[in-house]
Amino acid sequence: ETGVTQTPRHLVMGMTNKKSLKCEQHLGHNAMYWYKQSAKKPLELMFVYSLEERVENNSVPSRFSPECPNSSHLFLHLHTLQPEDSALYLCASSQGQRRDTQYFGPGTRLTVL
Amino acid sequence: AQRVTQPEKLLSVFKGAPVELKCNYSYSGSPELFWYVQYSRQRLQLLLRHISRESIKGFTADLNKGETSFHLKKPFAQEEDSAMYYCALYNAGNMLTFGGGTRLMVKP
After folding, report:
1. Which of 59-88 (B) contact A at CB < 8 A?
2. How many Cα atoms are found within 13 Å in the side-chain-facing hemisphere of A58?
3. Greatest pairwise CA separation for chain B in angstroms
4. What pLDDT, in 10s, does the model give residues A4-30?
5. What is the distance between the alpha carbons of residues A84 and A89, in angstroms, rounded to a whole number?
6. A107 in reach of chain B (CB within 8 A)
7. What CA–CA distance (Å, rounded) separates A24 from A26?
8. Which residue ranges of chain A lie beneath pLDDT 70?
9. Predicted confidence (pLDDT) per residue in B7-16, tens digit
């Protein structure tokens, strides 16, 4: 499959569960991103990984933990989430991290019960 | 801190009418602005960026630094233009900040 893929597409979890979201890009890019899209707030950048550095939004709670084992794969590990964490989680990639166009995945719709 | 504001959550026009989706920003540096679009059941994708000064699907956007605006315009709306539109700004830290989005509905 080409472009940016995300699995699973839908996830329902309890507050005590541990789960992981996966993102894979097939574009040969060097930077990957996690965004949160909730109904009541603008699209919000959570984490950036690039060859140069990792950048995180300081407002993201520690119950979200990113992992980037290589330039093609990005994970978001989730544990002890809250119902307000229910949202669409989008992954994106870009050639570099220098104002390049970002290419988005389809998202994972997360529901926390 | 940078901020992107899209004052209209919903814009409804008839087919063939002109469209203007508003975007205002606040940023102390030299801004780089984008419009992204999300059609129904499709992923978010780039529509245009101000530095390329190109027209995509008939849409244009001009950066007005005096008014700190980057409004998206199209002279004649088509039904297939119905979608969510997001204005976005790159800051000095190369992080993209999005506006809240405007849903455009083009009625037949």
Report:
1. 86
2. 0
3. 43
4. 999 999 999 988 889 999 999 999 999
5. 13
6. yes
7. 7
8. 1, 52, 97
9. 999 999 999 9
